[in-house]
Specification:
The protein folds into 2 domains: about 70 residues, no CATH class; about 270 residues, Aspartate Aminotransferase, domain 2, CATH 3.40.640. About 45% of the residues lie in helices and about 10% in strands. It contains 16 helices and 11 strands. It has a 7-stranded mixed β-sheet, sandwiched between helices. The protein has a 4-stranded antiparallel β-sheet with strand order 8-9-11-10. Strand 10 and strand 11 form a beta hairpin. The protein is globular and about 55 Å long. The N and C termini lie far apart (about 55 Å).
Length: about 475
């Protein structure tokens, strides 16, 4: 069959999948043993036959979709994964066929130009002056810039490499002496300590400050952490703040933290992988008050910007800091040349890079800034309404009022009960939840991302959880 005929087969299956998922009729999650899934998909036979086409393609795609987590389902509440807009899926089809690895401009001029445009748009939302990929920068005048990369973990690593290079540019060649210190809150994402390990700083040299609801207490705790670092003869070079935390969705006071960083010569990196999208909302952008004082920001489009993964922006207040973060030498890539565009390869860990900007641009072009802002505000408001609903239901407890679309709650009982309730919900297939530890207790956790989720669905979840708390006890 022709390419077009096969595309029609797949599009028909996907259209049915979207409609069924949005209705909430099928299971939201279908967890089977790996071997059983391999057999259901008949992978060995397809491998031997090599003829996935026509009716066999339709059967394979149908079975595959039946075994997925349905993110468009109203009961999909577990993780910080975007419910992708169909326009972005179409963009990924174009991306997959053209396969232009655009970190080198000549290998993907259209994709590279779209990334430049998208990065500058994101930079403008932070409140920085755009660098336009070096095109408009005046000598000795800093301009903000950035790069799109494959995920928040890689963006956080890249930001910390840039921070380290600014702090001590001899480390790239001579190695780390073991005396660097990195500061992060106790609620920071695990990728921060992972980055410290990769960079040779070491997890033991990541100093945490205690998270406290009081803004003044946070800054006081950072000060105490700095005293400890200096007493141990370490050199602090950067601080990572969360906007927002992964477990609870709480934002840290960026303006106050930035003041501490300025006073102590620290690079401030804001991990806004999930929460930076609030910058698009006039109602919620105050959650990131002071973000413009940061040196760098991680912002995932594949969380709240309806963009398929992975698509993350690493943005920096001074693009020169990112331009000098990495050192590289390859005669076939790095040499003087005349071209009308910009190579971004020196700003990333990756060499080959997908046309990530095309995915996000497709969503922007389909919904517009206003449409995305309305989506974000809807999800945040629904989380707040759910909090108020749950607080009024005897037997349910919420530790914190939500600041975004993440809400934690629990039923009376031990931590193990929360896990048993979740396991039963997953087995039922109507709701997909996660859990997180808040304080010293484990809570059920929901992330409201599907535009199909309504307050009635969450009320039904609450009473199902209460029912299970009795039968699972």
């Amino acid at each position: 069959m022709s390419f077009l005929e096969n595309v029609r087969i797949i599009s028909d299956e996907l259209d049915q999948y979207l409609r069924e998922s949005a209705s909430g009729t099928p299971r939201v999650v279908n967890q089977l043993p790996t071997q059983e899934i391999i057999e259901k998909l008949d992978l060995k036979a397809h491998l031997e036959a090599g003829a996935l086409d026509g009716s066999s393609l339709a059967e394979f795609v149908h079975n595959y979709l039946d075994l997925t987590v349905r993110l468009h389902h109203p009961g999909s509440l577990a993780h910080q994964v975007a419910v992708p807009h169909p326009a972005a899926a179409l963009a990924m089809l174009v991306e997959g066929i053209t396969n232009n690895p655009m970190a080198i401009y000549e290998m993907g001029p259209a994709a590279a130009s779209i990334e430049a445009f998208v990065v500058d748009w994101l930079v403008s939302k932070v409140g920085w002056t755009c660098d336009s990929y070096g095109a408009a920068r005046e000598p000795n005048v800093p301009g903000a810039g950035g790069v799109l990369t494959h995920g928040g973990s890689l963006a956080n690593l890249t930001a910390l490499v840039a921070a380290r290079s600014q702090f001590d540019d001899t480390i790239w060649g001579q190695g780390c002496l073991g005396d660097l210190a990195l500061i992060a809150s106790a609620d920071s994402h695990y990728s921060v300590t992972r980055a410290a390990g990769i960079m040779g700083i070491g997890e033991e040299n990541v100093y945490e400050w205690t998270v406290d609801p009081s803004r003044s207490a946070i800054c006081e705790n950072i000060g105490k952490t700095l005293v400890r670092i200096h007493a141990e003869k370490k050199r602090p070079f950067a601080l990572v703040a969360s906007a927002c935390s992964t477990a609870t969705g709480c934002y840290e006071p960026l303006r106050e933290i930035a003041k501490v960083c300025r006073e102590n010569g620290l690079w401030l990196h804001v991990d806004g992988a999930h929460g930076a999208s609030a910058l698009l909302s006039a109602k919620h952008r105050q959650r990131l008050d002071g973000v413009e004082l940061a040196d760098s920001l991680t912002w995932d489009a594949h969380k709240l910007l309806r963009t398929p993964g992975l698509c993350t922006a690493l943005l920096v207040r001074d693009a020169k800091a990112l331009d000098t973060a990495f050192h590289q030498d390859a005669s076939y890539l790095f040499h003087s040349k005349r071209q009308p565009g910009f190579d971004s390869i020196h700003r990333t860990v990756e060499c080959t890079k997908a046309a990530l900007g095309l995915r996000l641009l497709a969503v922007l072009a389909a919904l517009g800034e206003k449409g995305l802002a309305e989506y974000i505000e809807r999800q945040f408001e629904l989380a707040l309404q759910t909090y108020r609903l749950f607080c009024g239901i005897p037997g349910l407890e919420c530790p914190l009022e939500p600041q975004c679309n993440i809400l934690c709650f629990r039923v009376a009982g031990e931590d193990a009960l929360q896990l048993r309730v979740r396991d039963t919900l997953l087995a039922d297939g109507d709701f997909h939840l996660s859990t997180a530890v808040v304080g010293e207790s484990r809570y059920l956790r929901i992330v409201i991302t599907s535009p199909e989720t309504k307050l009635t669905d969450l009320r039904r979840l609450a009473y199902r959880v209460l029912e299970l708390s009795k039968t699972c006890n």
